[in-house]
Amino acid sequence: xxxxxxxxxxxxxxxxxxxxxxxxxxxxxxxxxxxxxxxxxxxxxxxxxxxxxxxxxxxxxxxxxxxx
Length: 68
Known about the structure:
Layout: H1 3-31, H2 34-54, E1 61-62, E2 65-66
Antiparallel strand pairs: 1-2
Helix pairs in contact: 1-2
């Protein structure tokens, strides 16, 4: 797969993940107050940023975990 195809693939994956995020955030806001949802999303974002920052840079990953 060449660079243009990879760019397109990752662009479509990004769009799909953004839709999932919006869906889950909207569903959570139907159950909890919006400020509570925003605060929780900030907590999750901070944790995920820490995980990425502490992970080896040369370790390729997928949703399923590290490649073997």
